[in-house]
Design a protein that fits this description.
Blueprint lengths: L1 H6 L3 H8 L11 H21 L3 E4 L3 E4 L1 H9 L3 H10 L6 H9 L13 H9 L15 H14 L5 H27 L3 H16 L16 H9 L5 H6 L2 H8 L3 H13 L3 E7 L10 E10 L20 E7 L4 E8 L5 E9 L4 E11 L7 E9 L2
Antiparallel strand pairs: 1-2, 3-4, 4-7, 5-6, 5-8, 8-9
Length: about 375
């Protein structure tokens, strides 16, 4: 009844009285409107319950479930979060993640124009993730997949496809973040790390197998080759070169070098310190608490330098504790490292008595090559 009362204060209620035929109403009396809204609410609640977004008790009491809270937080369709819940597995790789987010309801209205299927078919042959022989290239989810992969490959597209690609890119990150949360809820470490890596790929427009230096503005294949010959693999390797060697590798104009300098100055360099809380008094069945302190330079900006991403964004991070042998994710926290120094607390259930080895991961959602991992030892008392 509360939901019905709420709807009476919306534009929907006003429109129903003005255009009853459109809403399949038999009349505009209070009884007709009330019956229609009651049926609408019951249908929506039934759909949300089947999608495991809410729980309905005693036919009256509603409570949000984990999937519902994830969908609400990232403002995504309940059918999308239901798809993610059913399709994601512990072995999902980046290819599967790209296929999954491309199939989201949010992209169902991506237009496929007359004659575009042939263009998309031709584009697909230049992409790393291949399609099956019976693929229908006039389907929105296939087009979305191709547009994402074309973004990773930095392929030149027509004006219309570029507009479609921008529309996809502006929505896809929150879908990837939702995948991370769904995977973390199932404690699937490897797949969750893959989803985090996909977030980096989307922001920097490159594949995970591409050189890390490809993130640099104005970088050319020839410059990447020269860097490889000098064993310059990371942004940190590049900044440690002398000015003469750096100029010899990049061979850019002063204006281009200025853009590279801006990128390197904003590329995150974060120091990580961690300690297990009360390490000698951890009991089986209790809680393990890990305190993590992140520290960055005072002059570092958190605005992401991403020339191929269409929107301005701030960098974010995931702190993850996982057990590599079992690929089990034990704790996760998403953080925005705005301050020069900040501390965070991660907790997980203590295992059986004995010595246990874990990994602490610091994963970026925007840059490639700056992720960190540390060994974490925990001794549980008998």
């Amino acid at each position: 009844q509360d939901a019905v009362d709420y709807l009476t204060w919306t534009l929907l209620y006003r429109r129903m009285t003005q255009n009853p035929v459109y809403y399949h109403l038999q009349g505009t009396t209070h009884r007709h409107l009330s019956d229609h809204l009651s049926e609408l609410v019951e249908t929506v609640l039934s759909d949300l319950e089947q999608a495991k977004c809410i729980a309905v008790e005693n036919e009256m009491d509603l409570s949000p479930l984990n999937l519902g809270m994830i969908a609400s937080y990232y403002y995504i369709n309940y059918t999308t979060i239901e798809l993610f819940s059913r399709a994601l597995t512990s072995t999902t790789k980046i290819k599967g993640l790209v296929e999954l987010v491309s199939s989201a309801t949010e992209f169902a209205l991506i237009p496929v124009r007359h004659g575009e299927a042939k263009i998309l078919d031709a584009l697909s042959s230049r992409l790393p993730f291949k399609f099956k022989g019976n693929t229908r290239f006039n389907e929105p989810q296939v087009k979305t997949n191709i547009l994402l992969q074309a973004h990773f490959a930095r392929l030149q597209l027509s004006a219309e496809l570029q507009l479609d690609q921008v529309a996809v890119l502006r929505q896809v990150l929150r879908l990837v973040y939702a995948c991370v949360d769904v995977l973390a809820s199932s404690a699937w470490l490897e797949a969750a790390l893959a989803a985090m890596e996909l977030s980096q790929m989307i922001t920097q427009a490159q594949n995970s197998s591409d050189p890390i230096l490809k993130q640099l503005p104005h970088i050319t294949p020839a410059a990447l080759k020269r860097a490889a010959e000098k064993n310059v693999e990371s942004i940190f390797d590049l900044t440690e070169l002398s000015e003469e060697d750096r100029n010899a590798v990049l061979q850019m104009t002063p204006a281009q070098m200025s853009d590279v300098a801006t990128f390197c100055n904003q590329y995150p360099s974060i120091d990580v310190a961690m300690e297990v809380e009360d390490p000698d008094s951890i009991a089986a069945g209790g809680q393990v608490a890990v305190n993590v302190t992140l520290q960055r330079g005072s002059d570092e900006s958190t605005a992401v330098v991403a020339p191929f991403y269409p929107s301005r964004r701030e960098e974010g991070w995931w702190l993850v504790v996982g057990q590599v042998d079992s690929s089990n994710l034990l704790a996760i926290k998403r953080v925005q490292q705005q301050a020069q120094s900040a501390s965070y607390r991660l907790e997980f259930a203590a295992p059986d008595a004995g010595a246990h080895s874990y990994k602490l991961y610091l994963m970026s959602d925007a840059y490639m090559g700056c992720d960190q991992e540390y060994d974490l030892a925990v001794n549980v008392q008998a």
